[in-house]
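# step 3/5: fold
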Amino acid sequence: MNELLTLKLQEILRDKTHNPKLYYFWKKNLSLLTKDLFKPKGSVTLEEKVQLSYQKMHFIKHFINDNRYADDILTDPSRIILLNGLLSLVDPALWAVVNIHYLLCINTILKLRSDETHLANILDELLNEKTVGLYLATELGYGSNLFALKTQARYDVDTNEFVINTPDYKSMKYMPNTGLPTAKIAIVFANLILDTTDYGVFPFVVPIRNQAGDLQKGVFVTRLEQIPDFSLDNAITTFKNVRVPRENILLGPNLPYHGSLILPTRNKRSQLLMSIDAIATGKLTSTLTAILHMQASLFVTVKYARQRKVAVPRSQDTAVIEYKSHYEPLLRYVAKSYAMNFFFNFLITSKTSQATKSHRRFSHFASIGKAMATSLAIESINLCRIKCGAQGLFPGNKIISYLIAQHGLYTAEGESDVLFLTIARNVIMQAKYQKLYNKMQIKHTKLDLTHTQDQLDFLQGCEKQLFTQLKGKLNFAEAGFENSWKENSLTAIKFARLYGQNLLAREFYSVIEKLPQNTKQFELLDLLLKFFNLTVINESMDLSLRSRLLSENVCSQVQKYQNQLGRELLQQLDVLVDGFGITNEVLNVPIAEQDYLSVFDAIWSKQNDDSQQADRVIDVCVQNLTNKRNEKAAREEEMEQAV
């Protein structure tokens, strides 16, 4: 019965009903990660890990080409997004390389080239040869403020070329993966200068390293120290009189890429926003990666907690998962991971079906997804690290690697705190939201917080209350707005998070509304949604009490009801994490095995035989896992033949 329920949860979570193509893509390509190439390797140096990530990248290129996954990357990037999310489970650095190559570099060229002949040779090199695509936007002195970039691309009329320069140390391109000597071509963002006029920031296609891996003339690279357990060749990159042909500027569709330079009529802001459009797609893969890292960490932690024993006075040792202090925090993030996953399904469907009415609306939702997913991932993975004790510190158990990766993702493609502020500002400044909140007439005292719809209504009331408080603190006079905005930025972030969590809750509700109500999967997900809603209500309890939306007595009742739901959900916790569809055949994490202690028996055997060779524990354990699985498969095959 549990196996059937687990399968149903996987189908719902991966959206089999509404997006069967992606569901079967997930099932098919999950097995790709079981190949030896993707298994953990402890006995390698950090630099060897960097090289290994690029070796995997070239394998993935062939795999994508063989399956033609990149054919429709411009109109439907969903398969590349999903594949890249899966890759992040086994190698977060590989995820970064593939993401930058396909969804930022190639995607930008395809979106902004003049026509199908424009830069065809460079695209062929990126798609079919060993050349890796890069994306150089961020500068040392300006961070994620792309409007302030100072790298220059001066047009030389006599030679019909652009001359790219880094004018000072503040404008050095900061931390792109330019360090490893392999063929690389970059999208470089620079200010277009004609004569003495600055026309704003444009993207240029710039070769960084040739086929031998040598730096192109005028390109200078200084390697940064490596991020712990994140094997990427980050570096500082500068340009000195680097010349690229006239056709290497990306002006947008239908503008000629040869002859006289004809610029678009857009203003500087609109031009840059169009040029970085690929980042919105990049936010989707960041969102999915955060969700999968969150789910994999919860899967490992729950499996380990079933076996990890703690001493109980005058009683037998008990699995640590039985303690409320252990299971309830994990349940909160299991519920949030389901909610976040359903919101991602909405995003990917919107992207591929063009269901959203405008690019601005989609970008708004993509920002919410990225900000919410990365912040929830950091919180949940850090919790898992703690709940796994010392085992959570070792990269072989994956959790610490995911945590490091998520700290990077929180900053990449729009820092999540900045995204939260942008989301809050968009809501505050648009009249339609004020009208929407004005229409809300919620009588909090009449709500029954054991009912899902009443919970959703209550949370919308909390959102309206926080919106009203924030707007009341802002000075909308032009001269005073920025100062009042900065002063109330913490409240703005708090509002944006509540606004985001309410979107997640409503999407969760829309999913279970469509399920048959007399099924186990409906009953379980309905409980989980209630638990999610009560978690958000508890997180907003200070607002509810201060605003007198709830009495202390009702707050106490809410907590009791959540405790009751937690005890019920504990019985199905393994089913819920198995519902993620992530298996240990993919992760190869020793502590996630059903009998994790037996995985270490090969180390005991080696030491008992007086073997002193310096094998890494993770190498021995992974080989032992592989051997045990092979033996099990052989036994099952023998039994089938005997039958």
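# step 4/5: annotate
The chain has a mean pLDDT of 90.
# step 5/5: archive (pending)
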